[in-house]
Amino acid sequence: MKKLGSILLGTICLCILAIAVGLLTSAPAPAAPVVPTIPVAVVNTPLAVNASVSGTPTVNVNSLPAVQLSGTPTVNLSSTASDPLYVDADRPARNSFSASCNTQNYDSTSGRASCTIFTIPAGRQIVIESVACSAETPIGQGLQASLMVPNIPFGAAPGSQAFPNYVPLAMTRQTLTVSPDGVEIWALTNQIRLYGAAPTNGSVDIGVLFQASGPSLDPPQGMSCVINGYLVP
Prior knowledge:
The protein is mainly β. Helices cover 10% and strands 37% of the residues. It has a domain at 96-154 and 174-232.
């Protein structure tokens, strides 16, 4: 009987040990589920910002942002004698022109010839930036030539009349021609800066004036010129 009890006790112990081992070697926990990658779109909505700035702030802009202005903003520019701000007020609104004329032959009595090369419209201003001319005279003779540019004197009252300014054209003799007429060719090409203006009550003409040194000489004498510049509103 005592032997049977020992056997039963040993069996019970083995069962308890088997249950404990089973609990210790249970199946591992399942792995965490894989979450798929989800695309995310971020929409930037401009936000209204109210801010007050005092002093002289420094603003750094590393890109080219669009600037929108509403109403009529006031812009103040600082210009001093030591640090001047240069502004070209006429070129942004300029209207370029090119004009030419030919005096034909000179007057045999006065020895003069002229032509109108450009008409300044009423109330407008012009800037002449270049002039080019050519003339012909008998061999051994000289000439005098001028560009007449009317302008309103500085400081004159509005509506004042324009006065002519005669600008000498210093032409130089070129090589002799081989024509049987026996003429010499004179020429001039200059970069210049001349100003002209017409009063508000009427237009004025820019003229080319030619003076022959020997009016009684043949062959015919005369000149032609071309000017380039722009009109200022």
